User: Which sequence fits this backbone?
DNA sequence: TCTGGGGTCCTCTGTCGA
DNA sequence: TCTGTCGACAGAGGACCC
C-alpha cells in the first residue's frame, strides 16, 4: 500500500504538565502558567483551570478574576526546552522522519510502516514512561487531518481518521477549527453566512472568490475539505530573529525608547553572534497605545550581526518614525539570516 | 476584557532597471 | 529619445501559529 500516513503528536497542557513533574503536590489543582506584570497573558492552563474558563492568550488579570484560587506560576522556558528535548529524543528513537513544531508538537511521517497506529501507541507509551508526560495523537492521510484529529479528544486522545471521515466528523464544527483559519477569517466567513466547515466546503466558489480573492478562497475550501499535501519536512530554516518588549505602562519619551531599543539590540546581537548568523535587513516594530502596529525596515549591502552595526540603523528607524502616540511595545528584528564565520579579529564575516 | 513573545507567510504597493 | 511593460526586490501591514 502506498497511501500516505502522517501522525501529529501534541503534548497535553505541556508547560503545566512539566511544572507538575517537579511540583507533584499541585496535581489536581487549577494551575496557570502566566507572566508577571499588568499586561501579562496566560501561556498554559491546566485542565482543572480550564473548567473556570481560563485559556491560553487570556490576560493574566482576567484569569485571576475567573480563578482566584488558581496557582499561578511564572514560565520557565529553559526547563520546558529541556523537557521538550527529552520528548523529541523518544520520538526520534521510534520514527526517522519527523518535523518538530514548537516545543510541544511534532509531525511524524509514517508512510510505508506496516502498522502505523501500533507504532504511535508505542511512541506514546515510551514518552509517558520516560518523561512522565502525556500526549494526544492524531493519525491521517495528511498533516492537516492528523493535526485536527490530535486536537479532537484531548487529553490522552488517540484518533485515526481518513479524509472522508474528517469531513463528516467536523462538518458541523466552526471554520476556525482548522489551522490557517484564525479569528479574523472566521469572522469574515460568518459575515458571509458560513459558520461551519461543511458550509465552507460546499460554498459556491465564485461567491467565495468575490469576497476573499480567488487564491485564498480556493485555499479555504481545500482546508474545509481536509485536502492537504504538505510534506513532513525535517528542516525548518530560521530566516529572522527578533526581541521585543511590551511595557507595563506606555512610554512617550523618545530618549527612554532609545535606551530600551539599545538593550533589545544588545540581547538580539549576543544571540546572533553566539549562533554565528548575520542578516541584511534590520527592522523595528512599534505598537502604539491604540494597539496599531507599525514596522520600519532597512536592507543593508552586507549582513550584520553586531550591536555596533545593528544599533545605529535601528535607532535611525525609530527616530524617523518618532512617537506620534504613547508606545506600548518596542521590538527589533534582523532578517535574511545567513551563516557567518569568525574573522581574524573576531568579527563576523559572511561565509561563502 | 483589553490583548505576550517569537516566529512564518501572504498580499499589496512602490521603485528600479532591462 | 521617449514610453510602456515586466520582473525582481524591498517595505509595510496583517493574519496566523505555538
Assistant:
Amino acid at each position: 500500500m502506498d497511501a500516505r500516513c502522517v501522525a501529529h503528536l501534541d503534548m497535553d497542557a505541556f508547560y503545566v504538565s512539566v511544572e507538575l513533574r517537579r511540583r507533584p503536590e499541585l496535581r489536581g489543582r487549577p494551575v496557570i502558567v502566566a507572566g508577571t506584570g499588568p499586561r501579562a497573558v496566560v501561556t498554559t492552563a491546566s485542565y482543572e483551570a480550564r473548567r473556570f474558563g481560563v485559556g491560553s492568550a487570556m490576560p493574566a488579570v482576567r484569569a485571576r478574576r475567573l480563578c482566584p484560587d488558581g496557582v499561578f506560576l511564572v514560565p520557565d522556558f529553559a526547563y520546558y526546552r529541556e523537557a521538550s528535548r527529552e520528548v523529541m529524543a523518544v520520538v526520534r528513537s521510534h520514527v526517522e522522519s519527523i518535523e518538530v513544531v514548537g516545543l510541544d508538537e511534532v509531525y511524524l511521517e509514517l508512510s510505508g510502516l506496516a502498522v502505523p497506529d501500533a507504532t504511535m501507541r508505542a511512541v506514546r507509551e515510551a514518552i509517558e514512561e520516560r518523561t512522565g508526560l502525556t500526549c494526544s495523537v492524531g493519525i491521517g492521510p495528511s498533516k492537516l487531518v492528523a493535526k485536527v484529529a490530535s486536537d479532537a479528544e484531548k487529553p490522552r486522545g488517540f484518533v485515526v481518521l481518513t479524509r472522508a471521515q474528517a469531513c463528516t466528523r467536523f462538518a458541523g464544527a466552526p471554520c476556525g477549527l482548522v489551522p490557517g483559519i484564525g479569528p479574523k477569517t472566521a469572522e469574515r466567513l460568518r459575515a458571509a453566512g458560513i459558520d461551519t466547515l461543511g458550509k465552507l466546503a460546499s460554498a459556491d466558489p465564485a461567491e467565495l472568490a468575490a469576497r476573499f480573492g480567488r487564491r485564498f478562497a480556493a485555499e479555504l475550501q481545500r482546508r474545509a475539505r481536509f485536502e492537504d499535501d504538505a510534506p513532513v519536512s525535517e528542516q525548518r530554516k530560521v530566516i529572522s530573529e527578533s526581541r521585543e518588549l511590551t511595557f507595563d505602562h506606555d512610554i512617550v519619551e523618545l530618549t527612554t525608547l532609545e535606551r530600551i531599543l539599545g538593550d533589545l539590540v544588545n540581547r538580539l546581537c549576543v544571540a546572533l553572534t553566539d549562533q554565528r548568523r548575520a542578516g541584511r535587513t534590520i527592522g523595528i516594530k512599534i505598537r502604539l497605545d491604540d494597539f496599531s502596529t507599525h514596522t520600519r525596515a532597512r536592507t543593508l549591502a552586507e549582513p550584520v550581526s553586531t550591536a555596533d552595526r545593528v544599533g545605529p540603523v535601528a535607532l535611525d528607524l525609530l527616530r524617523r518614525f518618532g512617537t506620534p502616540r504613547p508606545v506600548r511595545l518596542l521590538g527589533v528584528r534582523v532578517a535574511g539570516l545567513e551563516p557567518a564565520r569568525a574573522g581574524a579579529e573576531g568579527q563576523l564575516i559572511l561565509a561563502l
